[in-house]
Amino acid sequence: MARIQIGQVDEAILRAVNRLQYLTAAQLGRLLYPHARDENRYVQRRLRRLAENDYLLRLRELPTPRIGSAPHIFTLADQGRQHLSSRGVALTSSYYRPSEERQKARDNPFIEHTLAAVDVLVAAECLCRDTAVSMPRLLVERQLKRMNVRVQPAGQPDARPAAVIPDAWFELVVTEDEPVYVALELDRGTEGQQHWRRKVASLVAWADGPYREIFQADNLTVAVVVPSVARRIQLSEWTHDELASIDQTSLADIFLFTEASPVTTPPIELFLFPLWYPAGAGIPVSLLDLPEDGQLLLSVGESSSSSEAPLAPPGEQLPPQPEAVDVPWDGVEREIEDVVEEETEDSMRPQEESDEDDFAWELMDDDEGGGLAR
Which end of the chain is less crowded, N or C, counting CB atoms within 10 A of the terminal residue's CB? Predict the structure, then answer.
């Protein structure tokens, strides 16, 4: 098989998949081409081309929605990993077994949970693309799991040590303000009170113990995304009750809860509007504070440049992205080289992804070492 030419579009896609581990066409569309109105058909073609040439691994389809076809999930494959490594890009994970990736993709709770976490990270990347916010550091769940950090849950001296593995951890910086460090937690409404309170006690011990040294961070926000208002109120009350029982109510403000969807809520609103409720509180706050001068939005020219940085690992620069977001869409397709043969609209049904979240943590069995894991 002749090796294809990797252009700027392909480079941006490969780097995004490497950074976020798993992506669908809809997620990539929101990230790279927010103004496209082609129902992700262009992104689908680019993904298919990269998958057919072993730069990406196309995993199984998600459950078929009521309208349209089921979206595929993509992760980095051998050629894509070799290409990025040759460009000096650090791989998010050096371990890769196609059979294991396919097996994980067949686990509906795992893959739906993972993609729901990616939805939040895509929203954060889009915020950085469109505003003066930056994200210097990002660790996905697989990277956090490799740290193997275990703590004794606060107030539970007889409990088993717990492995604290958030769904993601990232650093956000608003202009010249101090960084805000976020541990992402997602909930689907499946955990009972005892399980959730044990998680809260473990997070408290984590924040008060190894967290600062490991992450070189002096603050922490545990951002919890939930599926409904009722669930948000329930988890908020459970969290406050657990903090009170272990005499740690001073940490209530670091636990923030929202039922806002990261897919349908504009990123600026998700992060900068008062949509987040502290544990036990009824008045919402924003996840990030606006700068004192109120200057956050970038000009059109600045936005095009800023959108590249979130896709690159810390210390790297992403090559300039194609001007697809700023010029008529039909013109973009004429300018891109090596595009696979166009398919007619009739043969390309719109793809829609499920925004249903699955975010359960489970107690690990004794033979797995005990503790908390998703």
Answer: N
Task: Tell me if 84 is assigned to some domain.
Answer: yes
Buried b (16+ CB within 10 A) or exposed e, 46-78: bbbbbbebbbbbbbeebeeeeeeeebbbbbbbe
Q: Judge whether 317 lies within some domain.
A: yes
d(CA 242, CA 206): 15
- For residues 365 and 150, the model is more confident at 150
**pTM assigned to the model:** 0.78
The mean per-residue pLDDT over the stretch 299-321 comes to 37
Q: How many domains in the chain? A: 1
The runs of H, that is alpha helices, within the chain are: 8-20, 25-32, 41-52, 78-86, 98-105, 108-130, 141-147, 193-208, 211-215, 229-245, 267-272, 300-306, 329-335
In this structure, is residue 368 part of a structural domain? Answer: yes
Domain extent, residue 286, equals 8-373
Which residues are CB-contacts of 319 (< 8 A; sequence separation ≥ 6)?
8, 11, 12, 308
Q: How far apart are CA 104 and CA 232, in angstroms?
A: 29
